[in-house]
Amino acid sequence: MKLVGEYTFDGPREEVWKLIRDPEVLSTALPGTQSLEQVSENEYQGEMNVRVGPVGGVFMGRLTVSDEVPPESLTMTVEGKGKPGFLNGSGHVQLIAQEDGRTLMKYDGEVQIGGRLASVGQRLIDTASKSIIGQALDTLNQALKARLSAQVTGQAVEYKPPSETEFAASVAKDMAGEVFSSSRLIWIGVAVLIIIIILAIFLISSGGS
Amino acid sequence: MPKIIGERIKRNEDPRLLTGEALFVDDVSIPGMLHAAFLRSDYAHAYLRSIDTSAARERPGVVAVITAQDMGDEWQPGPPLVSPPPTVKGVVFHSRPQVPLVKDKVRHAGEAIALVVAESRYIAEDAVEDILVDLDPIDAVVDIEKALHPDAPLVHEDLESNLAAHLIQQRGDYAAARARADVVIKRKIVIDRGAAGAMENRGIVADWDAKSQHLTVWDTTQAPIPIRNGIATRLGLSESQVRVIAPFIGGGFGPKMMMHYPEEILIPWIAVKLGRPVKWIEDRHENFFATTQERTQVHEAEIALTKDGRVLGVSHNFLHDSGAYDPYGLTIPLNTQSHVMGAYDVPNYYSDLKVVFTNKTLTTPIRGAGRPQGIFVIERLLDIAAKELGIDPVEIRMRNFIHPDAFPYQREIIDQAFAPLILDSGNYKPVLEKAATMIGYDRFVKEEGPRLRAEGRHVGIGLVSFIETTGVGPYEGARITVEASGKIRVATGVGTQGQGHFTSFAQIVAEQLGVGVEDVHVSTGDTSEFHWGTGTFASRGAVVAGNAIHASALAVRYKILKLASKVLEAPEEELELEDGQVRVADIPNMSISLGELALLANPLRGAVEPGTEPGLEATAYFGPQYGAAAFGVHAMILEVDPETMMVEIKRYVVVEDCGTILNPMILEGQIHGGVAMGIGNAFYERLVFDENGQLLNASLADYLIPTASEVPRIEVGHEETRSPLNPLGTKGAGEAGTIPVPALFAQALENALPDLNLEILEMPLSPNRLFELVQEKERDK
Known about the structure:
The complex is a heterodimer of chains A (209) and B (781). Chain A is an alpha+beta fold and 209 residues long. In chain A, 42% of the residues lie in helices and 36% in strands. In chain A, strand 4 and strand 5 (73-82) form a beta hairpin. The longest helix of chain A is centred in the middle third of the chain and has 29 residues, at 125-153. Helix content of chain B is 29%, strand content 26%. In chain B, helix 11 runs parallel beside helix 19 (741-752). Chain B starts with 13 loop residues before the first helix and ends with a helix. The A-B interface holds A 57, 83, 85-86, 88, 112-116, 118-120, 122-123, 184, 187 and B 42-44, 109, 129, 137, 285, 288-289, 688, 690, 692, 694-699, 701-702.
């Protein structure tokens, strides 16, 4: 599956780079993250506990960061495994400074998924991935704005990340337009799960180095 | 003798089925029973580096965790179900049967790696998740056209390539025929994979009684007797120590003929090891990986004709997808070869078959079993030829039918039984004419079609014909007993999965013995009742088991008449069997009931005469010389919604000639079910794999089985050309409904979209795919 897209952050490139390299912030953008640790110079390990509807379980991911050009770009390779299946992939993330002081993030990744993730979640992946990536990047952008505001005023602005439930509900709402039958919510659940995991690893990769 | 065969009699088995009193495997519950679950591979192709089962073993309630290593010497592949064809020169066949559990390499997603047995299924499933397995994935072989590429990864690394088999069959001289043809048409035709989608998934319960040293196995199999024999061999037991029961089964359709599935060996094996009953019920998700599938083939096909539409020859090179293993030999592609000449007199034929291994679930016959592919190829080629030559599609078929005087008709190739393919009998033209009349072919072509199209509606008509080789050997048997109650007990070895055997078989017996159909109790699929036979497959129940039952009924009738003649002091010729009585004709008060006769035949005192046997019972067998060939024509009118590319079937007509009809209602039910499956094969059901061998639609939310809204009312007509190969004159019909539907759909769709000059050369379609094909054509315009 291809994951290609872009997102504009309301802040300068250096700040965005710092933000996405901060595991603390990332784990709040992706509720359910249990651990996020560096195992060697360019290798990270993450563990997420995700439960959406009836599907859940611990998912372990390992990734390698390469071709890092701070604060412009990096490439990562991921391997994840858990009860719902596995994923392998690689992706390229680019940060481009805009004239108005904002930052354009471009991402281009190819992910292979297998097991139950692939066999029952396939149909909703595209929609779900767009929605989840959008939600998570919005959360990060909120965190970015909070940081920037704190730098200006000298005061920390309270930043409250969405809870796991809010996050999932928000994604489900985005997908409601595509899915009419409530009996099929289980597949949404699976798809949501997949994307959370993909994105977690995707973003974790940017956050550690 | 009152006529009972051929009557529309309601099914004996339905009250039990409809009131929930029929036994299915999952209904079996035994005190102390354990439950099994399997760890299955997420990867399609991977080396198994290590397995750590320690956490699973420690989970409370887990009784056993078994890997290939744990099985030691008892881990054995296979055995193969069908051996390679011995009768064809130069045949290549590499036998690589399935393995019970992955030992060193995973060859398809869903292949079983470990077996967990626990106090409940919940615990077993949790323990499956406790197992740590290290799989090292490698590139997968998915696309059959790439499988033989020199750089392709190898499914079986001890082989030089992924070629599983290579076989060339020919008749006459195709090259010479081609040279003198007026028209040669060549097309690439692709058929993709589907599932059988039986309502009931597979299941097994095994119960070992250590004190009596006896194993009872309930299994959703179509072949209880071979399963019994195989389990006995594998477990080192005598066949008499093993009883296999195939109770009511919610649909077979072929995959339940596969033997032995790994689970069919493992569950009995572990039950004996543990000395406790063990149950395994396949879930729907597992079914998409662990139960066999069918259909993928790619044909480069060619037809050579004269300008007046006479077929001079057909040639095709084709690839057949075997999946990861090939225990079922060449049955499917041999069936394809047997049907690529369709119902037509094709004097020259050339067929080059290559079977390839891929990293997908293995393929074994599913209702149709290679025949739908063969019929799709020939019917498509004929349609394209008809268009090119300006001949009506119905007319070109008429011109090429095998003439009724030409039977028995030698095809000059071998069939799935490795015997020369002979079509025993047939009279095709009246069947086609009846179908054309029923659907109003001429009226539609001349009036209705043009009128509706003028209104802007996209309506189309199709009409295709097919043959079905049915009723193959080797044999079946039956034992019939008249009980003291006057009721009749019939035991046969074939299993039953909804075919109506309890009624159609009863009708055969009732007619001979003069009893009510409801007084004939049929037992199928229990090796303790009858233990000789092969199984329910290849549309052979009515032919092979039906005639064995007929022979057995005749033998019992002979015994009844002989004894009654003595008791009633009347010659046998004057006796008649009616209403459960033996009567002297024209003297109604001189009679004796069958129950009384049965008692007299089994006396408690006195003597049974030397040279006779006690009881009114007989066992008989039937094995046909070769298979009987059924024939049929399907016709449909459909309408395409140009916005959504959804198809609505307006009319659907089937005219079937399967020889003597035992029960038209049951036959029509079989045809209805078959057509529904064919509609799935044509327009809904496709298993989608990605390039890594991951199945992307392994749920009934994504893999679409036709429902009541997609299946139209089906009008069925009958012709009866008796088979000369068996006393009843029956031919099989179980697969007939499915075989021609994809070919029919393609023709009718092309007819519905005449401006586009569509050529449909692939199956299954979907509204999406049809939309794409239409888009391609519109771009080309």
